[in-house]
Structure formats: C-alpha cells, structure tokens
Write a structure and sequence with these properties.
Blueprint (H helix, E strand, L loop, with lengths): L23 E2 L2 E2 L12 E10 L2 E10 L14 E9 L8 E7 L7 E7 L16 H6 L3 E5 L11 H15 L1 H4 L1 E11 L1 H12 L22 E5 L8 H8 L14 H6 L15 H4 L7 E7 L8 H12 L4 E6 L8 H5 L1 H18 L7
Parallel strand pairs: 7-8, 7-9, 9-10, 10-11, 11-12
Antiparallel strand pairs: 1-2, 2-12, 3-4, 4-5, 5-6, 6-8
Length: about 375
C-alpha cells in the first residue's frame, strides 16, 4: 500500500472549487453524481480555554448574508470547536476534535468523521483540517480522529479505536446536537481503509470491536463513506501492481518492512490475519450498507487503483450504491484531487446525510 511516498495522508491545501456536474472533467472518469455547495462571506473570532487535558475552542462566525446556508435550512452564525476530546481512556492517542455548526436547538445536524492517513504509522487529527470549514458551511458537524498507530499498537487496534470513536460520538449525539442516523466517514489512503471498514462492517461483531473501549451497546455504523486512494485488501496489493505494470518495483506489501506488514506485526505473506483486511468480504453480512464515493488515480504507485476497483466490485456484488471515480494520470495524494475531488466529495456527503436527516424526521432534540 505504501511504497515510498512520505506525503500521503498529510495535510493538503484543499480548495473548494466550483460546482461539478460532468462525466469527464480534467482527466477524471466519473460514475455517479456531483452537487453544488453554497458559501457566504464571514468574519471570525476565536477563543480557547483549557480544561484538564483537553482544549476547548469556540469560534464565532458572523455571516454577512441572511440567506440560510446548509442542507437543514437553518441559518448558522457561530461555530464551536472542541479539541482533544477523549473518546476512550486506554491510550492518550484516543482523542478527537469536534467542530459544530450552530443550531437553534430544534434540529440535529449530520456528522462527517475525518480519518487521517499516514500508513497506519504517522499523522494526526489535524491532517484533514482543510475540510472542516467547507463542511461547516453546509451545516455539517465534523469530527477529526486520532487513533493508535502501528508504533504504539499493531492491527487491529487502530481500527478498534475508530469504531470506539464512532460509538462515543453517537452516544453523545444529543449533547452536541448531532443526528445519530446521519454519520459519514471520509478518509484518505490508510484513512480510506478505516473509513471503509466502518461502512463495510456496520454493526456486525468483528475483530474490529473492543467492548472495553466503551459504549459497546451503541452502533458504530455510518451512512456514507468517502475513500480517496484507499487500500482495501492487503493480500491483493502486490499482484495488482504486477498486473497494472505502471509502477517501478517499489517495496511491496509482502515485504516484512512494508507499512502493511508493520501494522500487521509480520509479513503480509505469512500473517494469519492478513485475509481479514479484505473489507469487501464483510459487506454481505451488514444489515444495512452505506453509500460510497471512491476516488483513485490510475498512476498510483503507493496504493494501486485496483484496490478501489476490487472494493467497488465487491460492494456492488452485494447491492451497495457505489460511485467510483478514476482520476486519469494521478498518483497517490496527487494535487489534482484538490482540483477535481474536494467539491464532489463534500456534495456527495451532504446529499447522503441530508437524506439521513429526512428519514429520521430531523432527529428533534430533547
């Protein structure tokens, strides 16, 4: 999955571009739909307080227009940011940052969970900060996760942390004005695997569940998933590189020093748990499957495009709704994703999660 690039999963300069509604754009082959977003000029003032080990930041945002912004049709003027919130207590790594659009207290808002990449080895919750403001402008709350990396704990502990974070967020949904029926996950590379893991497993009991992390009786399912250049099955990575024939001979997944092998704790070729990384294999057992938006470059020499193709085929085989975008000529974490994929990904999440709001009768707060 992770051959040589040190940049994947790091913070990128994402820019929200104009509305995209095309089939072929800037070398991108698209299957699915893209939507538009609304924005407004704002002035911002931020204050922060530290309580214990967590920092709470409150950001006041005053809109210069009276036009309602966002899918709920409720005007928002202030956002709140909570930093370093603990969702479990086993490790100091088990924290999240939560950014909230202001609500009038009568309607809950959707939540997008951002999961950073970094080869399961590095990165933190700030890596995807560029997405937060555009999502808040659409009246979507954002949770950015930290989780235990391979230097601290091997597979599947990081995945168990991510599941625990979703459960914590859902358990505290009423407290923060979140719609518990409208959770989405968005990840890149390693984060894409983790986001897809949430979607494919749903509420099935798997090795990715650790009841000791808390809220074991709360759902860890999500209703929408975005994965950019994500791995989906460690055992097929090397063969897909051979079949594609577009990349030099970098370190392959089966090498004991590969990032996949380091996360597993031994070579992909010999690890008894390697087959359990095949995420499509879980989808058939999920009671309800989310919708997916997958984007992958066809010149990716870190995670082969075959990983997303394999995932899309496996998900569709069990009836999942999947949009799969192949970005022509793009490598791993390629800047072209900034140009062509930010806005469609946000539009996809907003559309999918607004439907969740409607289906749950707007999840009126009590």
């Amino acid at each position: 999955m992770f051959r040589t690039s040190p940049v994947f999963g790091l913070q990128r300069r994402h820019g929200v571009v104009a509305s995209l509604g095309v089939v072929i754009l800037l070398g991108v082959s698209v299957v699915g739909a893209a939507g538009a977003s609304s924005t407004s000029a704002v002035s911002v003032a931020t204050t922060s307080t530290t309580i214990g080990s967590s920092t709470t930041s409150t950001t006041s945002t005053t809109s210069t227009t009276s036009t309602p912004v966002g899918p709920t049709g409720i005007a928002r003027s202030v956002t709140q940011s909570l930093k370093g919130v603990a969702y479990a207590t086993v490790s100091a790594s088990e924290t999240l940052d939560l950014s909230l659009p202001v609500s009038d207290g009568t309607t809950a808002v959707p939540l997008v969970i951002l999961i950073h990449g970094g080869a399961f080895l590095f990165g933190d919750s700030t890596a995807e900060d560029a997405y937060v403001a555009p999502l808040l402008q659409r009246d979507v709350a954002v949770a950015s996760l930290n989780y235990r990396l391979s230097g601290e704990a091997i597979y599947p502990v990081g995945a168990q942390d991510v599941k625990a974070a979703v459960r914590w967020l859902r358990a505290h949904a009423a407290e923060y004005g979140l719609n518990p029926e409208a959770f989405g996950a968005w990840g890149q590379s390693a984060g894409g695997w983790l986001a897809t893991m949430l979607g494919a497993t749903g509420d099935q009991v798997t090795l990715f569940d650790d009841p000791s992390l808390g809220n074991a009786d709360v759902s860890s399912a999500v209703q929408a998933v975005v994965s950019w250049y994500g791995v989906s099955d460690f055992t097929t990575v090397d063969q897909q590189f051979v079949e594609a024939g577009v990349c030099p001979a970098f370190t392959l997944a089966a090498d004991p020093d590969s990032f996949e092998s380091r996360w597993l704790g031994e070579s992909v070729a010999t690890c008894s748990q390697a087959a359990s990384t095949n995420l499509a294999s879980y989808a058939a057992g999920a009671a309800v499957l989310p919708t997916w938006y997958l984007a992958h470059g066809d010149m990716d020499c870190v995670v082969p495009v075959g990983q997303s193709a394999e995932l899309a085929a496996g998900l569709r085989a069990v009836g999942a709704d999947v949009t799969f975008v192949v970005v022509a000529g793009a490598g791993h974490a390629d800047p072209i994703f900034d140009v062509t994929q930010v806005q469609p990904s946000i539009a996809f999440l907003v559309d999918a999660l607004v439907a969740g709001v409607a289906s749950s009768a707007s999840a009126a707060l009590v």
